[in-house]
Design brief:
Radius of gyration: 18 Å
Oligomer: single chain
Number of strands: 0
Structural class: mainly alpha
Strand content: under 5%
Distance between the termini: 30 Å
Number of helices: 4
Helix content: over 70%
Largest sheet: none
Order of helices and strands: HHHH
Length: 141
């Protein structure tokens, strides 16, 4: 009889988890800040935070539901789940808090947050693979 063993991925370093979480936080804030830049406001920081908080809350839900800390740089399924939940929860929370979610805003949020949340993961993955390859330790994960 042949024994089948389930292989698990090695643990992810705390530094990678911190990087991914911080990068996600930063890109959501950049998304909100760039969106608010065209508005003439007396309190721009308050405007950014008003726009950002639903998506930041969605980001936390996305990390929790996908357990992104297990493989925070993996595009599929972790990165895609974080992105989808961030946008979906962000839109729901915007509506529940009395903000709007016009179709053009939804489309822009989907596209920009996809580029930001998935883009930094793809870039970090390329850098890690390149560093592993250059050091003679070709690691495929």
């Amino acid at each position: 009889m042949t024994e089948t063993r389930k292989t698990s991925n090695p643990p992810v370093s705390r530094g990678i988890v911190i990087y991914a979480a911080a990068a996600d936080l930063i890109v959501v804030l950049v998304f909100a800040a760039t969106g608010r830049a065209s508005h003439a406001e007396t309190h721009p920081l308050l405007g950014v935070l008003t726009t950002a908080w639903p998506f930041l809350a969605g980001l936390v839900v996305g990390w929790a539901t996908s357990r992104a800390w297990r493989a925070p740089l993996r595009l599929w399924p972790h990165g895609v789940a974080v992105w989808a939940v961030t946008v979906a929860a962000g839109m729901v929370l915007r509506l529940l808090s009395g903000q709007t979610a016009q179709l053009p805003f939804v489309v822009v949020a989907l596209v920009v947050l996809a580029v930001f949340l998935l883009g930094h993961r793809a870039l970090a993955g390329l850098v890690r693979r390149r560093m592993n390859h250059d050091s003679g330790h070709a690691v495929l994960r």
